[in-house]
Design brief:
This protein has 217 residues and is α/β, with parallel strands linked by helices. It is built from 8 helices and 5 strands.
Length: 217
């Protein structure tokens, strides 16, 4: 069995790093304003790397709420025509198409969202997919890989900027709250977490050692 594949490493899951920017915290009422997604790949030696990048500015869905505090934080002007915004359907349909293609190419079973404080981003993607009536959502309906939790375990840091610093990844706070920038840093962080575990000897798992430990206990 080739252990240096996404399918083997993540139990059939195809990880996709995602970050969203929104006009509030409620995925059902506040507008989704920006989304970026990065697919991942493994080289022949099993090192995880960034692959393809997708980035869209999103038009607020009809009737959505735009919270001034959220807009002040992410510095997005929803009605600025220079944003080149597209509908939720257009953005997600393109991302979903690429992800389904990646699942097939990597012989995986399903995609899984990787994000920092992943429940937030996951909720917005799921709500937008439902509004857009996209029946081919490739992502797991509730499971995620949360880099905040993983970074808390490995680095003792849960804030993205501090976790990146602990991992040796440059993070400029002036660029934060841009979906594309945060997704790129989160993807680099996730790759470092996975690759560091490999460098420490934690992957591939030594089955014989696990059997001996179990018998010893």
């Amino acid at each position: 069995m080739n252990v240096n594949t996404l399918r083997t490493r993540f139990r059939g899951f195809y990880p996709v790093v995602i970050d969203i920017e929104s006009a509030g915290l409620n995925a059902n009422t506040h507008a989704l304003l920006e989304i970026a997604a990065i697919t991942l790949k493994m080289d022949k030696n099993g090192w995880l790397q960034l692959d393809k990048i997708f980035h869209f500015h999103i038009e607020p869905f009809p009737g959505s709420i735009l919270q001034p505090e959220a807009l002040a934080l992410n510095r997005i002007e929803p009605n600025n025509p220079l944003r080149g915004a597209v509908t939720e359907h257009q953005a997600l349909n393109e991302i979903f198409f690429a992800v389904r293609k990646g699942i097939k190419n990597q012989e995986c079973n399903r995609a899984i969202i990787v994000a920092h404080n992943a429940a937030f981003d996951h909720s917005f993607v799921m709500a937008a997919a439902e509004r857009a009536n996209l029946q081919n959502n490739p992502f797991h309906p509730f499971s995620t890989f949360d880099t905040a939790a993983l970074s808390g375990l490995v680095f003792g840091q849960t804030v993205l900027a501090k976790a990146c610093a602990a991992a040796g990844i440059t993070f400029h706070t002036s660029f934060a709250h841009s979906a594309l920038y945060d997704t790129e840093r989160t993807a680099e962080l996730f790759c470092e977490l996975v690759n560091r575990w490999k460098r420490l000897g934690g992957w591939p798992i030594n089955i014989s050692t696990l059997i001996l430990d179990k018998n010893f206990k």
